[in-house]
Amino acid sequence: MSLLEAIILGLIQGLSEFLPVSSSGHLLVFHHIFGITGEDNLTFIIVLNMGSLIPLLWVFHKDVIALIRNPFQKMTALLIIATLPLIIVTLLFQDYIEEMFHLVRFLPVGFVITGVILLLSDKYSKGERDIKSLRIIDAVLVGLAQAVAVFPGLTRSGSTITASLARDLNRESAAKFSFLMSIPTAFGAIALRAGHIFSGRILLDDLNFLNLTAGFITAAISGYLAINFMLSLIKKAKLKYFALYYVFALAIVVLLFF
Question: pTM to 2 decimals?
């Protein structure tokens, strides 16, 4: 992996992580284009996740500080409940999920499913509930949507926002809860890969720290821009336009060229 490739991947991660597009799917496509394979593939993706986590913590720092100061509150419990399905799926299918990150041929299926999910979001775009009205059943269902979206080609933010809209949340609350859910998810992914490093499964000698740093910084900067863009976009736009990108553009391109 060259330095330029690392910067491009960081840019893709930062932009696609918080928009209703599949960051893992886009990264897999460009990993394939750049010829990046092996264990450093997933390791680099986790480093990019770390980079995109920084602006997320910054933008929602008031909510994060409130959770830290008072961890025994309703929102803490809801975030834990919403994260549990992802933990279970990851533990049960970890090897299969990691194998999928090397198989670009399955991406069109995930892209088409994502397009359908985003089209459905348009049907549930008139919710009136705010984030304070969230219930346990809401957290469970949105958490299940996040767990399914762990596979490449599916969008985590698009799936969780659509599920929240289906639970009659308004668009701003759906986006906020989706972003807050991604914080423990990112920390969990980082912890998982850190465990692989400490266990010797990933050798630090095999990692290019210049590339990792460049990707990290680029993901952080572009992620900050994407978060603010998405928070503004969700108030006035529909996600169906992203669906058109998925179904009619990205899936077809991947089918034709890969």
Answer: 0.84
